[in-house]
From TrEMBL:
GO biological process per UniProt: protein ubiquitination
Keyword tags: Coiled coil, Ubl conjugation pathway
Family: Belongs to the NPH3 family.
Coiled-coil annotated residue ranges, if any: 497-531
Name of this protein: NPH3 domain-containing protein
PANTHER family reported in the protein's UniProt record: OS12G0117600 PROTEIN
Entry keyword Coiled coil: yes
NPH3 domain span: 167-451
Pfam annotation, one family: NPH3
InterPro entries (UniProt xref): NPH3/RPT2-like, NPH3_dom
């Protein structure tokens, strides 16, 4: 009673009504029995020790018991306040420990502005060099212990080498509860700390307490960065409350890693079932930077009662947010050359390519309805796709996975494709695709021929421009150059077709010549066959054609013997030859 004004006032009130001993209860005592025991020891002169872990608890208990200087010089309240300001608020390690241990007396600590002072001190030290937080300035060389900590006069200070990066404090504050972490982030934001650092701290905290967030994200491994090697116990958090709180704390920033983090939060949110406001806000945040998203991030599995493998409704809402936020884009179809040269439409084209890949990925799901596929394809404006090759590929995959679709259903889906925006390869593939309806194939062939004619006309214009005078040629060439660029390779196809046509003509003429020669040889062979059948002696046939036949061995000897003497045989043969020349054609056999 001599040290505590609270107990003294209670005793005076109950003394008049109770003659003997009586019992009282201290409701809502901050810090519990441990804090009361500390105050009781102090009152009875027992030695007590102030530490960073018990200072806030003792401070609140001394205020509750009214242990001011009015009830004793150098009372517990004054000692606690001096220790807090001189020791705790100037040291990063002690400040972190004090904040983590204040959960049992949070209302009283907030009422006494102790919590605010500690949060402000932490926020200020985040912007300051960690080597100034009550630790030695020399942090290198022989002052390091074998474990990497800093030595001061041979004593381990518990501090590690300061990281050169600005995220050295992420690990230390990740041991706070959700409410305390939220208060700290808001305090740092009020002090003007950069949103990039705040976002990094929030992402670090979320990955630590949301295991599902780190399993599918490629987070770089490594040791946790911290400037103090003191033992901290991770807090038990409610993942649903944590995710909803993190969503409200996240700053409005853009970046590939940040967009990937948001997609991970959305995936976890669909698993644990957060409130609709939180989910809508996450979808809106992702829609603001959808052009930075990746395909694997958008493939969010469906955890509800839906039959489909992926949550296509969620992706559709995200794209709607993106289109609504892109208010500066022109939603009608401009010329393709203007679309390619417009820098403001680059995000729209990136999202269009991303959506084409997404539709192609989910098209293999046998439970995906044709109406949902058409909705996903038409959620973006028509001007977002300079080429429709991605849509054609997605439809081809869908038709392959759904062979039971009728031609009418396929034709309705094919209406989303503009055949004039198909490339050469896509047209060539579509014209031979058996999965497409016949009417669609005919349309593809029609537009393919039209492209060829337009490309050929463009080539002729270029040739005329080259043959024109210099001034007119430059004007005509500049006018038609832009048109040819838009043909997507059709000019090259026309040139190749010309070369092939010339080769085919040469081959056709050569084949004609070979056919004529073959017919002549055939006629001659027929004549030879007829002559052979009409003549009985082979020697007569040989004489008719003016050839000599090799004689047998007996005849050969006779001829050799006869050749030694004079014989009129040459004259006879010459006479026969002159007599039969009018009845035969002379050609040689060999």
């Amino acid at each position: 009673m001599s040290k505590c004004g609270k107990i003294a006032s209670i005793f005076e009130e109950l003394k008049s009504t109770h003659d003997k001993t009586f019992t009282t209860k201290l409701e809502e005592f901050p810090g519990g029995p441990d804090a009361f025991l500390f105050a009781a020891k102090f009152c009875y002169g027992i030695r007590v020790e102030f530490t960073a872990r018990n200072i806030i608890m003792v401070y609140c208990a001394a205020d509750f018991l009214e242990m001011t200087d009015e009830y004793g010089e150098d009372n517990l309240l004054l000692k606690s306040e001096n220790f807090l300001h001189k020791n705790v608020l100037r040291n990063w390690k002690d400040c972190i420990l004090a904040l983590q241990s204040c959960e049992s007396c949070m209302p009283r600590a907030e009422k006494l502005y102790i919590l605010k002072k500690c949060l402000n001190a932490v926020s200020m030290m985040v912007c300051t060099d960690p080597s100034l937080f009550g630790w030695p300035m020399m942090m290198y060389g022989s002052l390091q212990s074998p474990g990497g900590s800093i030595l001061w006069n041979g004593i381990n200070t518990g501090a590690r080498i300061r990281s050169a990066e600005s995220d050295w404090w992420f690990e230390d504050i990740s041991y706070f509860s959700v409410g305390l972490f939220e208060r700290l982030i808001k305090t740092m934001e009020g002090r003007g700390i950069r949103c990039e650092l705040l976002a990094g701290a929030i992402m670090y905290y979320a990955r630590k307490y949301l295991p599902g967030l780190g399993r599918w994200q490629s987070v770089q491994g490594g040791k946790a960065r911290t400037v103090a090697s003191f033992s901290l116990t991770p807090v038990a958090v409610d993942q649903k409350v944590l995710l909803e709180s993190i969503e409200m704390l996240l700053p409005k920033k853009k970046g590939k890693s940040f967009c990937r983090f948001l997609l991970g939060l959305l995936r976890v949110a669909s698993i644990i079932g957060v409130n609709q406001t939180c989910q809508d806000s996450l979808e809106r945040r992702i829609g603001m930077q959808l052009e930075l998203a990746s395909l694997d991030g958008l493939l969010i599995p469906s955890y509800s009662d839906s039959d489909t493998l992926y949550n296509t409704d969620c992706v559709e809402r995200i794209v709607h947010h993106f289109v609504s936020l892109e208010s500066g884009l022109t939603l009608f179809s401009p010329p393709s050359l203007d679309l390619e040269s417009s820098p403001s439409s680059e995000p729209l084209r990136k999202v269009a390519r991303l959506m084409d890949s997404y539709i192609a990925e989910v098209a293999s799901d046998v439970n995906l309805k044709p109406g949902k596929l058409r909705t996903l394809a038409e959620v973006l404006p028509e001007s977002s796709r300079p080429l429709h090759d991605g849509l054609y590929r997605a439809l081809d995959i869908y038709f392959k996975a759904h062979p039971w679709l009728s031609d009418g259903e396929k034709e309705k889906l094919c209406n989303i494709i503009d055949y004039q925006k198909l490339s050469v390869d896509a047209c060539a593939h579509a014209s031979q695709n058996e999965r497409l309806p016949l009417r669609v194939i005919l349309q593809v062939l029609f537009f393919e021929q039209m492209h060829l004619r337009m490309a050929l006309a463009g080539c002729l214009n270029v040739l005329e421009a080259e043959s024109a005078p210099t001034g007119q040629g430059e004007i005509a060439g500049n006018a038609t150059a832009g048109q040819i660029v838009q043909r997507d390779g059709w000019v090259t196809v026309v040139r190749e077709n010309r070369v092939l046509k010339v080769d085919m003509e040469k081959m056709r003429s050569r084949v004609g010549e070979l056919e004529e020669e073959f017919s002549k040889i055939k006629q001659e062979m027929k004549r030879v066959t007829k002559s052979h059948s009409s003549l009985s002696s082979p020697r007569v046939v040989a004489r008719k054609f003016g050839c000599k036949l090799l004689a047998k061995s007996s005849d050969a000897q006779t001829d050799v013997a006869g050749s030694t003497g004079p014989t009129p045989r040459p004259s006879v043969e010459q006479a026969c030859s002159s007599r039969n020349s009018r009845h035969r054609k002379s050609f040689s056999l060999f």
